[in-house]
Design a protein that fits this description.
Number of domains: 2
Mean pLDDT: 77
Low-confidence stretches: 1-15, 295-301
Distance between the termini: 21 Å
Largest sheet: 6 strands, antiparallel
Strand order of the largest sheet: 2-1-3-9-4-7
Order of helices and strands: HHHHHEEEEEHEEEEHHHH
Helix content: 55-70%
Strand content: 5-15%
Number of helices: 10
Number of strands: 9
Oligomer: single chain
Length: 301
């Protein structure tokens, strides 16, 4: 049985660039307005925006552009088009705001993934790799994958139950909060079920294994957590599906506005208004909220 999950995470280099981009934009925008308020020339007031665009633009938008060339037209592609258009038309403030929106959303999502990974790692580290099997008067320490259904397993005080079973000897209590979210100890006596992953109290208990370690409650939780951590969340998939439809529609309306008005700024205006800022920010915020809610129930479920 695997006790350590293979946890995939985002590239730390990409995460750092997203964070750098967001911080640069947060500094550049107020400095731009301060310089304007002080009456500086337009070239001077735009210097902070130039720096933010030059340093942050390519690292933030290059991965999105690569996805677009691969045929993945997600909800953030419209932001890339709006950014490029704003930079080309001299609307640098709009371009920086779009960088801030996208990089901020990516930082939040990266944080959510890392938090989920840390919870998964904590769960994995709690599971023992060995167990104490009793045969008659003999007590052997064996690997977890050697446990068979019907084996008598001794759980010493403060140890973690290695397998699902039923108590056959001993009276005590166990902490099941990591599994159920209930913040109290559960009494254990002969005939009472024990869940793998539970923490034993002050009294040694002997249980009869009812399931293999790979089929236990703890293994099922780990499998669900790994699957959820490695797959893209439903909200993100839904956001990309919406973006795949909404992006070309917005581009058509923007081009139509430019064609009929003869003013390229109309094209930019449509793109900026159509860029799905709430959707891009809401998805990572939703992920973080869901993880935080689970953390309130002892980080497990």
């Amino acid at each position: 049985m695997k006790t350590q999950p293979e946890i995939k995470s985002l590239s730390s280099k990409q995460i750092n660039w997203d964070l750098v981009a967001a911080i640069l934009c947060l500094f550049a925008i107020p400095i731009h307005f301060i310089l304007r308020w002080a009456g500086a020339a337009e070239v001077i007031t735009n210097i902070p925006l130039f720096l933010a665009i030059a340093i942050s633009g390519i690292p933030v938008f290059l991965p999105i552009a690569r996805k677009a060339f691969a045929g993945d037209f997600g909800s953030d592609l419209l932001g890339v088009v709006a950014f490029v258009t704003g930079a080309l038309l001299g609307e640098y403030l709009a371009a920086v705001l779009i960088i801030l929106m996208l990089s901020g959303g990516q930082v939040l999502e990266s944080y959510a993934v890392r938090k989920a990974s840390s919870v998964l790692r904590t769960l994995a580290e709690r599971m023992p790799s060995t167990a104490h099997r009793r045969k008659g008067d003999k007590l052997d320490e064996i690997n977890l994958n050697e446990i068979a259904i019907g084996d008598e397993v001794v759980i010493f005080p403060h140890e973690v139950a290695p397998v699902d079973g039923v108590v056959i000897d001993g009276n005590g209590s166990m902490d099941e909060s990591y599994l159920t979210g209930e913040p109290y100890f559960v009494s254990k006596a002969p005939g009472v079920a024990v869940l793998s992953g539970s923490i034993n109290g002050e009294v040694a208990l002997t249980i009869r294994a009812e399931k293999l370690p790979t089929d236990s409650r703890y293994a099922q939780i780990m499998a669900v957590m790994q699957d959820a951590e490695q797959k893209r969340p439903t909200a993100r998939r839904l956001g990309d599906q919406i973006g795949a439809i909404f992006t070309p529609v917005a581009l058509v309306f923007g081009l139509a506005a430019w064609f009929f008005s003869g003013d390229s700024m109309r094209f930019l205006a449509v793109l900026v208004v159509a860029t799905p800022c709430p959707l891009l920010i809401a998805i990572p915020v939703t992920i973080i909220s869901a993880i935080s809610l689970r953390s309130l129930t002892k980080q497990a479920l």
